[in-house]
Predict the 3D structure of the following.
Amino acid sequence: MSDIKKVVLAYSGGLDTSVIAKWIQETYNCEVVTFTADLGQGEEVAPARAKAEALGIKEIYIEDLREEFVRDYVFPMFRANTIYEGEYLLGTSIARPLIAKRLIEIANETGADAISHGATGKGNDQVRFELGAYALKPGVKVIAPWREWDLTSREKLMAYCEQHDIPVDFNKQGKKSPYSMDANLLHISYEGGILEDPWAEAEEDMWRWSVSPEAAPDQPEYIELTYEKGDIVAIDGKKMTPAEVLTYLNEVGGKHGIGRLDIVENRYVGMKSRGCYETPGGTIMLRAHRAIESLTLDREAAHLKDELMPKYAEVIYNGYWWSPERLMLQEMIDASQQTVNGDVRLKLYKGNVIVAGRRSDDSLFDESIATFEDDAGAYDQKDAEGFIKLNALRLRIAASKGRSPLKLK
Amino acid sequence: MSDIKKVVLAYSGGLDTSVIAKWIQETYNCEVVTFTADLGQGEEVAPARAKAEALGIKEIYIEDLREEFVRDYVFPMFRANTIYEGEYLLGTSIARPLIAKRLIEIANETGADAISHGATGKGNDQVRFELGAYALKPGVKVIAPWREWDLTSREKLMAYCEQHDIPVDFNKQGKKSPYSMDANLLHISYEGGILEDPWAEAEEDMWRWSVSPEAAPDQPEYIELTYEKGDIVAIDGKKMTPAEVLTYLNEVGGKHGIGRLDIVENRYVGMKSRGCYETPGGTIMLRAHRAIESLTLDREAAHLKDELMPKYAEVIYNGYWWSPERLMLQEMIDASQQTVNGDVRLKLYKGNVIVAGRRSDDSLFDESIATFEDDAGAYDQKDAEGFIKLNALRLRIAASKGRSPLKLK
Amino acid sequence: MSDIKKVVLAYSGGLDTSVIAKWIQETYNCEVVTFTADLGQGEEVAPARAKAEALGIKEIYIEDLREEFVRDYVFPMFRANTIYEGEYLLGTSIARPLIAKRLIEIANETGADAISHGATGKGNDQVRFELGAYALKPGVKVIAPWREWDLTSREKLMAYCEQHDIPVDFNKQGKKSPYSMDANLLHISYEGGILEDPWAEAEEDMWRWSVSPEAAPDQPEYIELTYEKGDIVAIDGKKMTPAEVLTYLNEVGGKHGIGRLDIVENRYVGMKSRGCYETPGGTIMLRAHRAIESLTLDREAAHLKDELMPKYAEVIYNGYWWSPERLMLQEMIDASQQTVNGDVRLKLYKGNVIVAGRRSDDSLFDESIATFEDDAGAYDQKDAEGFIKLNALRLRIAASKGRSPLKLK
Amino acid sequence: MSDIKKVVLAYSGGLDTSVIAKWIQETYNCEVVTFTADLGQGEEVAPARAKAEALGIKEIYIEDLREEFVRDYVFPMFRANTIYEGEYLLGTSIARPLIAKRLIEIANETGADAISHGATGKGNDQVRFELGAYALKPGVKVIAPWREWDLTSREKLMAYCEQHDIPVDFNKQGKKSPYSMDANLLHISYEGGILEDPWAEAEEDMWRWSVSPEAAPDQPEYIELTYEKGDIVAIDGKKMTPAEVLTYLNEVGGKHGIGRLDIVENRYVGMKSRGCYETPGGTIMLRAHRAIESLTLDREAAHLKDELMPKYAEVIYNGYWWSPERLMLQEMIDASQQTVNGDVRLKLYKGNVIVAGRRSDDSLFDESIATFEDDAGAYDQKDAEGFIKLNALRLRIAASKGRSPLKLK
């Protein structure tokens, strides 16, 4: 353990990572650099400086990464209409690669040879942090205290704090939550506590970012999103940066009770876990992006994306953002978005995101062909006969040879 | 045209297929057999007998196919969590193969050598009817009047009616709808009229099966669905047949404003079209099936299903229900459902279908492993290190050879 | 038929397209522009000028497209290790989009409003020509004489020639072949004649480009191919252009009896057909490209390519080169090839292409890790335990709940 | 280490597993049960009894599993035309699940609580053994000596043998091979030695099962394989069991220099390795199975299989034979094979497997439709126009809106 000289720690300023900061210094007898990022989690990051200093840290990084996060991670992911296992919008997964990247960049800047994080040995986040770190700096060492130490209960942790003068009220943001939570501009997640029983309904006072549909306004609200190359660039005609877009959509979505999710998911490490998520802005973006694509994307381009989406989601969920396969998929996805431009009009009401209209200069909807009225020859209905006949040919030949599709075997 | 002797016509009893029944007799100088099915469209089918007789039809088939429809078509499709283009629940698509099958079976019973239908040359339904027919009876002839005749405007159609004594008030179900509609137990669809402008919002009075979320009750309602092998067999503890299940879910869903959809979709014949759909029960079933699978299905089984779902949906949408590829996919899907048993508790409220709980004797959720509390050694966190190290190995080797995942090119 | 003013015809100079050139002028009363390309089919294209002039053609295009063909079509396709239905190297399919593109470009230059070709109504080539043409010039008209005229037998064709002074010896290249053939720098194909019986073995004297393995030299020959970004840029240390590469590999491959193929394939129009192909250079390139990728490509990048290859092959086979989905797939494929650099050494012997070695500065093969000898700690075997344990976790949980993988149902 | 009572060891009778047998007894102070299987590796298994007895083993299992191996593992795999990374026929991978299954069954019979094997911590085989074991007996313990002990060099191993009276000449089968080898009825593999340099050509005297193409007979040989439901049931008209089929094809293939392979592959544990393989019978079976499928399998069924094959191969390669996803894929594959019946005629010559003919009562090849001659109306060429027009519609609409497929971006 003596060969590690300097460690960059993903430091939230909370109790756990404060203990880690101390534990690493003590256990590895090495320097610790803290890195605290504002990813939109809704807590002040500035106080992390004083806390880190109190722990004896000399090199302290505190950064606002909200724009980078949304622009280079969230938006590219939404171009693919990405959902994991049919439900989850990957709010935690998509933040990890950015943190991993900054940990490594800071390690390179500060001459550190190791990184550390506060993720447990049961979850996906350890994988995401470490895969990213190894991919970016292959020789880096990783300290994952939760897999190493013996502070395996809250009591031992408290005893350690007392012993090392770590102020325990660090973590008070109102009452102590019974849930394990993670938040960033895309979502907030809840695990543990009563959620460990998948039959138990989440309690109303758990949710933090959204009102319940019942408590949402009785009046619907319309918003209009403007897309360029698959990304939202303006809302209701007002230009916004990526982080502004997501911030705004979180507000308006949360106000209307949009984006709550309660699922059982399959972790990469092999177990099922139950999680609740609030993703107001993301829920709006997913539906709106599909709507603008429905008008502007070629059918086979759209279907190709749909067929590859589950894989792309899995790649991100499992922590392979910094992998060749993700980059290849991204090239393909981005190539499809050149013409995904235009406006989507949405109605928000008590948990519902309702598409009320979509329009685009790049629309492939051809009213003159699609119409039920006279199309003046734009489409020759007789073409359909040959189309069907030849598409049926293989089926007709098979049937004429005695095969019945009523039964395969 | 003289070589056709007898035609089985998919006959709704409405104006269009009545004209077709007459037109075929006149044009092809052949017998017509009518086939009218109750698929849950919500209209009486019995009157079709008198109408058909008035048109001179001798062989008249009227059948209640609701149970077969849900049991053998809707339920198998929902086992795959099937959605076309991320949104559409395939309500029309899934009914066509059953009609095609009955048309052919009746043709075989009655010695008919042709079938006919009232679908236009622009849509998907002609393809679905005819692919099914050819796959089941390869030498069958198809009469598709809308691709053949010159009754291309409402005026010409009316003139034809007058000329042939076809009562025009056939089609009065209250006011004449400006929309082209199709209904069965799974959904009702709307196309045409003002919907031809994708920017225009659907009018409230278009919708027929559901109230708007705004008009839905202010009190949420909980229901509990019981699954066996991926299908719902009971609701709130009461055993129900497949058609009873869907009927009940349509009622309760419609009451709570659930299942409205407004999309632009890509037709198989190559054009985009805009459609609105009401699928109250289907919307509930999709979410509930995912919930019960989330607890009972292995991760890789679930991901394999997710990766193949878009293809399976496309196969159904395009009309290839009666094809070897659909049967192969179905074998795979059904094989996965043996353990998809248990209960899902849902909260329905103003358009929202909220999963409130799921439980199963076949649950793969292992609380003793997943817990954030002490797991008594059920899971060794140290295993994660090796897991990550080896999963990272290819990335580390690449990085050590100078490759940067920050940029592929 | 009178509204067509000028047609660009894909003109081989052979009998069939000469008849077509005349038939179009006569039938449509319009001008014909001929386009003859050297794609490496091994016949002189220059004589096409005099032949076209004799048919009264005023605008005659004769072009050497060999470099463009290999560089922009063959090489990109081989980057994906493309094979259709496990066997076919797509020799005909890949030439059609280039011809379609030139037909349309010439139509634009000459003010033509239509294109024409000599492909029959049963095959894939009509589809490939016309899809390409429509994608590049949506309003273009297409004249496909084989689908239109009544010259449906050889006798009628000969009578037409006599009647219109078209010299029939046009087509004598030695004896009249009983096969329908197509050739370009990638391959030569044979269909029809005795090949219509899939049980009949092709006759030795059918093959034109290669000797039989039996007749090939008794001495093997080694060659060394140098790759840059997935394409061959030198052979045995000598820099070559793309067309030079393929020309050389055809020669050396044909000499060693390499690249004969005899298959039954599934046409896009719905029937099975039996074809024989000679693809000496392509057969070498396929194996060599896999060899250089095996050393330089990341595992998951390679597997992603492998999973998408069948679709990419189908897209090309079916004629969708000029489609968004092909372009998206190409982006992904090309993105993977940046590091596919290095040398492959091959042994050619009597039909065999044997990989004798591969090396690369971009190699990901790490001998220090892979070695069976002492690896000095490069790889910690203990990591494997955690790797296996967590990969097995879902299986262990399932088994502990009583599920047996010995039987799914 | 004291909590293990009895271990079932996969015992080859060779030096390494003899050392392991002793080492386990000594280290874990527990009973060892040996299991030795004849999978067609070409060595006597009977001598394993005496060797095991000499090591103090009381419970000794020696079994001939050749028929089960080919019938339940090799044949099902070949129904999918399975190849890993475009080249490898999975000869080692497919034997492991059978061994894992027997290890567990014997553990259950003998009351053992652990299994052990002689695979190293760098390879795929440890994963395949252990995943299978955990899937079949979730609480089983695994002893993997190569990951645990300190006998990490040949010298230490020899010292251990001397110290424990283990006869070292156990392993003399002629000279000591410089290669790490594995053999069963499907193949023999070579790794290590000079093969660790991917640029070095394998030496001729390494190969054991096949002559070189150069040394093969100058006369080709024809054989005829008869298929039922995708499996070979007779050769040259003679009924054979699965193991007889493969034994015969290995002989005739090896005689003709067929089935040598030299590749660099990607291991599941994350490294590239170079291996040489001899798979004479498998190479013949792969080509022949594609040939019979080409005649009898529907196009879309075949393409669906092709698209999923890489995943199926990966599942087997990575060791997930006993997983729900493999079973699901197998259901789908097997469902497609009901009509894969008929004969394939092959010509074997100096390394080449040449398809000379295929025929079947279940043939979907329709000569009356495919013919270049007059088809008497079996196929209406005019149908092709509508087919192309509608398939082109989306491309034409896009082009008419100004999109050019010449450039995506």
Observations:
- The mean pLDDT of chain B is 95.
